[in-house]
Amino acid sequence: MHPWKRLLRLLRPDRTDIRLVIAFAVAIGLLNLTVPIVTMAVVNTVAFGTLIQQLIVLCLGLLVALTIAGVLILLQYLLVEYIQRRIFIRVASELSYKLPRVDLKAFDHRYGPELVNRFFDVLTVQKSSAVLLLDGVSLLLQIGIGMVLLAVYHQLLLGFNMLLLGALAFWVVVLGRGAVRTAIRESVAKYRVAGWMEEIARHPVAFKLAGGPRMAWERAEALTREYLEARKQHFRILLRQFAFLVLLYIVINVALLALGGTLVIQGQLTLGELVAAEIVINLILATFLKIIKYVEAYYDILAAMDKLGQLQDLPSESLTGEHHVAHSKGASVTLHSVSFTYSGQKWPALQQLSLSISPGERVAIVGPNGAGKSTLADVLYGLRTPQSGWVEIDGVDIRSLRPDSLREHVALVKGVEIIEGTVLDNLRMGREEISLMQIHEILAKVGMLDTIMAFPDGLHTMLWGDGKPLSLGQASRLMLARAMLGEPRLLIIDEALDHLDEQFRDMTLATLLGPDTPWTLIVITHSEAVARQCDRVITLLPPARSSPREVQSRAG
Ligand SMILES: Nc1ncnc2c1ncn2[C@@H]1O[C@H](COP(=O)(O)OP(=O)(O)OP(=O)(O)O)[C@@H](O)[C@H]1O
């Protein structure tokens, strides 16, 4: 979608306020016209030596007009402030609704947090739209009204208007060609620099390697060069547009003084009219040199909309489908010839995989790196849809279920995903119905209760995105506790137990395998000791590059 269309869509809910801002700008423009008109009247009054009372009346009239204009300016300022706030709220709420629902494949080739940096462009949209609405509109009106006024003074000045309009059209269409494209390219380059800085901060240990700082510097330098090149291209267009405005400013100034003077000499224009016309012209011309600032704001806003569009266009999971209704303990799982290939990959990660897991069964999935174990977990959790074959949970094809409904029955523990918040926030994850008693119980079961309670703030201890102040093993146990709290009917654990020491692993396993647990358990692991404790071990082999693979299964 063109950034312009995106902007219109974003501003649509504010259209009434925007119309008001424009209406105010028209009124302010008209009221400001009283300045040249009164000046003309004063010049004529003084020239003909009329009474002082007339001067007082003129000044009072001017005072009233300018006071009304002042009030309108304040109201306009207020409205634009509200529009800015609403833009922020709308973009923030749209994205916070969208991001948890984004289809995982959107992040296969892009790093999500880096992509989300584009949210900061909402500030550009806010600031630039304020500048354009407050000053840009009145500037255009000032030019428009000024031109009408000039046309009223003399038909020769009408000709001048036509020339001016032609010059402006040339300025926008010809000299401005490619400006939106270069503005977008500049902002892409800007994000690449920011993304690299983020990458350095994200890998503090890797960049402490002997060559790390040099690599960080060299890549930053290369990306900065790319940015400068993109900025130069954009600036070239701005500069040529600005140079044309300066030229126009000089030519018009001189030509109009000469034209006005000639008309006065020929008696076709009064002295007062010449002075007023000069004021009007100078008003137009003074705004001329400022136009470039607004044009740059306009290009920036479109580039920002393009960036925000990258977030708005992220594909979402479909929220259609049935709600899953099943109350039995433990879900059954069946895979029917499931094949899945990542986009851009030549070979499948899963190839014609068939297996069946009974309700309440505890199954270990083992296999070498790259065998497709994590991909299988993603498929079962509804994060990825097989290109062929299908998966049944409780005998229901998961394609016909709403993903959120499926995840009320299925939980996946994969990696360490600690969010910035308290321990309690991290455990509940919005499920306010989970009681403190349940939380204490589950923390004790994964051997984390003493650790958490030893922190001065206990359950209210703040955790940071990287899991600090928890160790990797502690954070993994917190992830397990988070999943178990939801009492899923299918619990999939992707290597989380492999991070634990023997004591905590056995303790957690005892909880996971306990006779009263409500789930069917799938544990993906590289640990023989973990696999041995399960009812059954399924070995996944890397997909044969030419023929369907075998699934080996043995009792645990
Ligand atoms: N996001 C992705 N995009 C493209 N290919 C991927 C992606 N994720 C995994 N793969 C590929 O899919 C195959 C299976 O990967 P998967 O992570 O499922 O293996 P795994 O058995 O879990 O491995 P490990 O034991 O190392 O965790 C691998 O060949 C991998 O390169």
From TrEMBL:
Keywords: ATP-binding, Membrane, Nucleotide-binding, Transmembrane, Transmembrane helix
ABC transporter domain ranges (all copies): 333-553
PROSITE patterns from the UniProt entry: ABC_TM1F, ABC_TRANSPORTER_1, ABC_TRANSPORTER_2
Keyword Cell membrane in record: no
UniProt superkingdom: Bacteria
Locations listed in the record: Cell membrane
Signal peptide limits: none
Regions crossing the membrane: 20-43, 55-80, 130-153, 159-180, 242-265
Domain ABC transmembrane type-1: 20-300
Membrane topology: Multi-pass membrane protein
Protein name, as recorded: ATP-binding cassette domain-containing protein
Organism: Thermogemmata fonticola
Taxonomic lineage of the native organism: Bacteria, Pseudomonadati, Planctomycetota, Planctomycetia, Gemmatales
